[in-house]
User: Fold this.
Amino acid sequence: MTVLSWRHFFISIAMPVLLILCFAIVAHFIGGSIERSSIVFFISLTVVAGIGVYSGNSGILSFGHLSFMALGAYASAILTLPVQMKKLMLPNLPDFLGSTQLDFFPAMIVSTLFVMLVAVFIGLLISRLDGSAATIATLALLVIVHGIIIGARDYTRGSQTFFGVPRETDIWIAGAVCAFALVASRIFRDSVPGLKLRSSREDAISARSNGVGIRNERLLAWVLSAGLVALAGIILGHYLGAFSPKKFYFVDTFALLAMLIVGGMSTMTGAVVGAIVITLVTEVLRRLEGGIEVFGIQFPEVFGMTQIGIGLVILFVMFKRPDGLAGLREFDEKLSLRFLKPERPAKSSAAQLPVLKDKAALVADSISKYFVGVKAVDGVSIDINPGEIVGLIGPNGSGKTTLLNMLSAVTPATSGLIQMGSHTISSLTSDRAAKLGIARTYQNIRLFSTLSVKQNVLVAALSKWPRINIREAMARSDAAMEWMGIENKALLVAGNLSYGDQRRVEIARALALEPKYLFLDEPAAGMNRVETDSLMDALNEIRSQLNIGLLIVDHDLPLIMRLCDRVVVLNEGQCIARGKPEAIQKDPIVVEAYLGRNKQTGD
Amino acid sequence: MTVQFLWIKLILLFTLLALVPLWVESSYIRHLFIIAFIYAVIASNWDLSLGYAGVFNFGHLTFFGIGVYTAAIATKALGVSPWLTIPLSGVTAACAALLMAAPVARLKGIYVVLVTFAVSQLVLQLVLSQSQITGGAEGMVRLPYLQIGDYKFIRDYKLGYYYMALSLLMSSTLFLVWLTKSPFGKSLRAVRDNEDYAQARGISISRQRVLALVMSAIFTGIIGGFYAIYLRVASPEVFSFGTMSLALSMVLIGGVGTIWGPVIAAIALTFATEAMAGIRGMEEARFILVAIAMIAVLRLAPGGVAGLLSRLVPEKN
Assistant:
C-alpha cells in the first residue's frame, strides 16, 4: 500500500517496466556485444536501485551491499552446481549441500531469502548506528564478509576462481530482475515506511518528535535492499559462469558508485538515469580509447580515458547538481505537478480532526537540565490543562527552549518528573511521547524540506497512535492542512515555501498527530501583523474547538498577553513569576528581568 | 586534557620509541615498528580531517597512494634522487587534496563520502589503466633505496630507516598538535560542532574544509613516498578496502579527534595484526577481527581508547 493515488501508482511502475522491456527487445534484436553490454547494464541497474532503497531513503551510504551481492552469487552457485562437479571442486561440502542440485529459479529464491536472513541479523546489529558511524560499519561488514568468503574454502574455493556455474542469465532474465528491482524500489520509496525513512533523512530530530521511530523502517529498507542486491549478484554469477571474491570487493565498484552519484540515489529515476549515462559514457570512451577512425580522422590510443571521462562527469554533476541529475523527485512527481490533476480532498466536511476528550493534565514537577557548568533549567514546575493556552516568556537564554525540549522528550531532563495522566513523559523517547499526544514545532523551523507539504503532514498522521490506515491518514492530513489554511499548497515542496507558510506547515504537521498538547516555539517569529493575527485566530480555534492544550513561547508580548490564559516567566533557568497575563504585566520582578533595574532605565 | 599533559605524553612516547633500537636488534621487529610508524602518520593525519574538521573523507588513503606512486614514478621514470622524491610526494598529495577538496567543500554528509570515495577509486582506476607508467595491477618494483655516501639505510638492521620513519612520525605529530592547538585548529572544531555559529562568527566553512584536507594530505603523502622507497615497491594494494579499513580502525579505535590516540592505536594494531598473520589460518581472519573491533568501538565506545582513558583521568577545565 503506497501513499500515491492508484493512477499515479500505475504510471510510476508501468513506465520503468515498459522501458526495460523495450530496451531488452531492441538489445536482443541487435544481439552480439550490445546484448551482452545490456545484460551487464541491467545487472548494474539492479544493484544501483537496490542500494538506493537503503542509502537513498535513509541517507546513509553503504559499502556493505557488495557483500550481499557476493553472498547471493556464491549461495546460488553452490546450489546449482552439478553434483559431480561439486565432488571434484568442493569435496568437503556438507552432505545436504553436496548432494543437492537445484534448478536456477528455485536456487535464486532460496539464495535471496538466505541473504535477506543474513541481512536481518546484521541489520539488527547496525541499525542503531547513525550517519557516518553506520557507513563505517558497512565498510567493516564488507571486509568481514570478504574475509569469510576467502576463509570458507570448503564452500567457496577461497580466493580461487569458482567456476562451472550454469550460465542461465539471458537478456530476458536480467531484464525481468531489473524491472522487478526498479518496481520494488519505487514502491518502497512511496510506502509508509519509505516515506517515514525519507522524513528522517531530511531531519532526524523532527522526524522523531513527530512520532517516527525509524529503527524498524531502517531495518526493513536494509533487508529489502540486501535482497535486491543479492538478486543482482545471483544473475551476475549465472551470467559470468565463473567468478572469484575479488569480483565483489574493490576493483569493480567505481562504475556502480558513479551511477549512484550521477543519477542521484534517492530516486528510482536517478538510478535509471545514472546507469544510462555512465554506461553510455563508458561504451563511447572505451571505443575512442582503442584509437578508432571517425570521418577519416584516426584518433590515437589513449589509455585511462574511460576513467577520466567518468571522473569528469562525476565532478560536473557534483558541482552543478549535488543531488544527482534526477534530483530528489521521481519523473512522475515532476510530471504530476504539470500534467496530472492535483488530487483534491474529497469533501472538507468529511475530513475533520477529532475533538479531544481526554482530561489528563500535563504536569512537570521541578524539572532541571544541567549542561556542563550551566544550569539551563533549574527546578521549574509547570502544568497545562486540555483546552488551555499557557504562555512561556523570558529573556534570551532563560531556558525556554530547553524547557520545551524536555517537555517534548527531545532532551532528557537531568532531574524531575513530567507526567501526563498515567504516562511518565520524562522517561520516554520523543517518538513515544509524540505517539502519546505531545506535538511541537521548532524555533528554527524543522520541516522535511524536500518532501511536499502534504507528505510532511502525512508522515505525522501515519505515525500517530493508535494507528490509522492510509485513507484515514490522508483525510486527517487534509483536515490539518485546512485548519492552517495551506490546503492549496499541498503538492508544493515544503522547503520552497515562504517563512510564514513553513511555520503553518509545521503546525499542521503537529496537528496531524492529533495531539493532546501542542508546544509552539516562537510561532510568530518573522511574521507581519496580519499574519500574526490570522495565526492567533487559528490557535484560538485549535484550543476552543479541538480542546488541545497549548504552550506558546514567543517574544511577541502583545500576542502572548492577548492569547494566553496563564503566563509563566523564566529567568536564568528559574521560574520568577506565574499568573494571569494582566498580573504578569505589572509584576515588578518581571519588569526588572526584561528591562533591567529601574535606576538603569534612566527616564 | 591540558596541553602540558599532552606534551608530556608525547615526549615520553617518542623518547621510548627512540630508545627501542638499543634493545631490539631483530630486523623483522624493527620492520614492524617502521610499518607501525607509517600507519601512525596515516591515521593521525586522517584524524585531522575526520576528527577535527568533521569532513568525512573516505579517500584519505588516496593521498598516501599518490605519495607512493609519486616516489615510484619520479625515481624510476624520471631518475630523481629518492631523497628528493619523499618531500615531492607531500607536494603532489597536497595538490591532489586541493583538487579533491574543491567539490567536497561545498557538499554535506553522504555526498562527501561518495565523492571522496569516488576520487580514490578514480585514482586507482587510473593507476590500473596507465600500466606503461605505473605497472598496472602488477605495480612497480625495485625502486632505488636511500643512502648517505656509501652508507645504505638498510644496514645495521634497518637502523637508518627506523630513525627516518620515527623522525617523520615525530614531525608529523608535532605539526598536527601545533595545528590543532592553533586558532586554525579551534576554528576547525567550531565548524565541526556547529556550522551555523561558526559561519556567524566569520569562519568560512569551505575554506577551512579545503585547508584541513590539504594539511592532512601533506604528511600522508610524504610518508607514502617514504613507504615506496623503503619497501622499494609500489602496488595498487594501497588503495584497497583492506588497507583503508585498517587505517580507519586505527583512527576509530585510538579515538577520533585526539591525534595521539590514533598514533598509539596504529602501533598496537600493526603488531597485533602482524602477530595474527603468523598464526596459520589467521591470514584473512585478522582483517575480520579488526573490522569487528571497529564495529564494537562504534557501538560501545565511540570515543575510542583515548576516550575511555580520558574518562579515567578526570578532566580539568
Observations:
- Chain B has 14 helices and four strands.
- The mean pLDDT of chain B is 86.
- Strands of chain B lie at 140-141, 147-148, 151-152, 233-234.
